[in-house]
Specification:
Strand 4, helix 6 and strand 5 form a beta-alpha-beta unit. Helix 1 runs parallel beside helix 9, helix 2 packs antiparallel against helix 3 and helix 4 packs across helix 9. The chain has 266 residues and is α/β, with parallel strands linked by helices. The protein is globular. It has a single domain, classed as 3-Layer(aba) Sandwich (Rossmann fold), CATH 3.40.50. It comes from Xenorhabdus bovienii str. kraussei Quebec.
């Protein structure tokens, strides 16, 4: 049995929707200590609605203790999934993924299933996770590698105003995890189609999430995932910008919004 390691953000409810019918173990980093009953209730209520209103967005924001602009885009354009990251039966809910949790995790029955892990996280996994899964860890990145690495990659790249770079990097990538930041061998990547038909940079990020989740689902359906020979030949070099900001400031957000609209010719 494979493992999925992800977080309790609203956008990961779309990942759970994609993978909910697969037999998987889930490790959920619940850093904001979200309440499962609260999430159950809000998803049950809003999944029945054909159109999500601003009032609904406010309810989601309270339940999730915050929503990003891409998450608001997803809710308004795709609705609210019935389930969320904490919905699965085979789940371990943890605030952190550091060594103390890992040592306790090794006493759990699901830790014996170390055939491979798919991850979608805003944190870097420590080396002991790589060792545990014998390096069979695949990450989904919401941009096309190697053209935009790190956190908030496509937004920060957009803020530079380089239209050609944004066109190359808008999309998603699956790659093996190594000790670097988005430097592992690339398995698959897809560009975002109709990029300039999207209204905002937040729509681009939201669509990139969905594309990343689709790549994860397709990968699990392969006959032999995590085999280390399913990679592409891609050169890394000067076209591999790294964005490591953990504080994606309002100033940079506004710059990304402005530059995206300028690139669209608005």
């Amino acid at each position: 049995m494979f493992t999925v390691i992800t977080e309790t953000f609203f956008h990961t409810s779309f990942l759970h929707k994609k993978l909910r019918n697969s037999q998987l173990n889930w490790i959920i980093r619940n850093a904001r200590k979200l309440d499962i009953s609260t999430l159950n209730n809000i998803h049950y209520e809003l999944s029945k609605k054909d159109k999500i209103t601003d009032e609904d967005i406010n309810k989601l924001e309270i339940s999730y203790k915050g929503l990003s602009e891409p998450e608001k885009y997803l809710a308004k354009n795709y609705g609210v999934p019935e389930t969320h990251a904490l919905s699965s039966a085979n789940i371990i809910d943890t605030e952190k993924l550091e060594i103390n949790f890992f040592q306790n995790y090794l006493n759990n029955e699901c830790s014996k299933h170390n055939d491979g892990a798919l991850i979608f996280l805003d944190v870097i996994l420590a080396p002991f996770w790589l060792n545990h899964f014998e390096k069979k860890i695949v990450n989904a990145h919401s941009a096309v590698l190697p053209y935009a690495r790190g956190m908030y990659a496509i937004e920060q790249l957009t803020a530079t105003g380089n239209k050609d770079a944004v066109e190359r990097a808008a999309g998603a990538t699956l790659h093996y995890v190594d000790t670097g930041i988005d430097t592992g061998a690339i398995i698959e990547r897809k560009k975002l189609l109709s990029l300039w038909s999207l209204e905002t940079i937040w729509a681009v990020k939201g669509e990139s999430y969905l594309l990343a989740f689709e790549l994860m689902k397709d990968y699990l359906e392969r006959s032999k995932p995590f085999n280390f020979i399913d990679t592409l030949s891609v050169e890394y070099g000067t076209d591999s910008p790294l964005f490591t900001s953990k504080t994606f400031t309002d100033k940079v957000k506004r710059q990304a919004e402005y530059c995206f609209l300028k690139m669209k010719g608005i």
